[in-house]
Write a structure and sequence with these properties.
With 444 residues, the protein is of the alpha/beta class. It contains 10 helices and 23 strands. The chain starts with a strand and ends with a helix. Bound molecules: flavin-adenine dinucleotide. The site of flavin-adenine dinucleotide has 33 residues, from helix 1, strand 4 and helix 7.
Amino acid sequence: MKVVIIGASFAGVSAALAIRKKHPEAEVFLMDKQQTIGYLPGGINLYFNETIKPIETARFISEQELVDHGLTLLLNAEVVSIDATQHIINYEKEALESFISFDKLILATGSSQWSQNILGSDSDKVLKYKFLPGVLQAIEQLENSRKVALIGGGQIGAEAADTLLKKGKEVHLFERMDYLLFKYFDEEMIQPVQAEMVARGVVFHFDETVEKITDVDEGLLIETKKSQLVCDSAIFAMNVRPDLGYLDEQVRTHTDGTIFVNEYLETSQVDIFAIGDCIQVPYSLSNESFYIPLVNNAVRSGLVVAQNLVEPTMPFVGSIRTIGTKLVDHYVASTGLTEAEGSFYEQPISVAHVQQKSSLFSGGETISGKIIFEKESHKLLGAQLVSKADILEKINTLALGIQAGQTLEEFYQKDFLYHPYYSNVIDITNQLAFEGLWSEADEN
Ligand code: FAD
């Protein structure tokens, strides 16, 4: 079996390694248009925070490690077209056109940062740093910038704000919604982080959609309906999108440009699969699929596709959008449905809040938690945690409870570790479910 994977990033690499295990006899080709693969998209923050140096080391795997696993790499090779019926891929390498055939093809070409809606967003001064060439340019330009505009208040924009504050830059953040990280947090949960950012100098431009960016002598002119700002450079911190110009039109796509796949990650064409950022993923809390570009989805879809290559046996469970990061000394983490999204949910929901010390003695920072659940059945739907203590791992427990369809009653009596120094007498995750139950009882 000859398997070709286009795209050697999180999804493609995870699929390649899993296929190597599952089908040791298969020939596995991993193609990418870049020469250097495995770069970590958030690496620029680690670089500026002096966690890693040089930036080239911000990688999760090297070419040599992949070769050592018996994979054949075809790098610096840009796929320009595929013939889904004849099973032929046409690619360009060093200006030469070549072809490669396949028995099974996995499309893992991910996404890139571009927008058709913001005029001028393709300017060189509008920094995009998902891949290494972009990050090298961004580092140089940011070092020489005093005033930086961030376009987007999601995870990329929020992390960039934190990093640039530490670098002493003047930071302006534009966001079309009215608060930071709105996809993941309800406003009251993220408010302390936002207030701390303002105290440290971030100027928020909420409810403002950037419409146009123009290169001017002084730098860049950013325009929204409400304001104009001249800055030295800007960071394009918005949603990424698939870029599928190479795709055979026989491969069905959604209107948002993602590739259509069934639950086994098969495209509309036999023997062709798609994974990672170029597909929508099923949202585990409804029957719909959404575009949720996250590393965790890319890696898990890569693991699942390996199981389905020969026979469709393992459906992809999808995502509940679990994230976590650290911003202005606060650890923030979220999974599942937010309360704000509750109005779109098919059943009535309820929420409960908890504030508790992270541990009795070691540090003892306060953790603010919120749980979202179905009012009738008490099924867990979402959770958010914010603290100066490192609570990031705790969100994975809550995510597992939600994925497993647990109720408040089941979750509040789950096992947890107790230690007199490192933990509290009841874990915040259990306490959240307990409070959820009693908030309901008190109401009744
Ligand atoms: P990608 O990483 O997009 O990789 C696709 C690969 O395909 C690339 O190597 C590309 O060169 C190659 N390719 C594309 N077209 C062709 C072609 N025609 N021929 C050959 N090769 C091709 N997610 C998180 O979960 N946590 C984070 O902290 C996080 N931080 C991020 C920070 C930034 C700045 C950005 C932009 C994104 C971040 N993300 C984060 C999102 C995350 O990067 C993506 O979800 C993830 O990279 C998707 O992996 P993928 O393998 O599907 O695709």
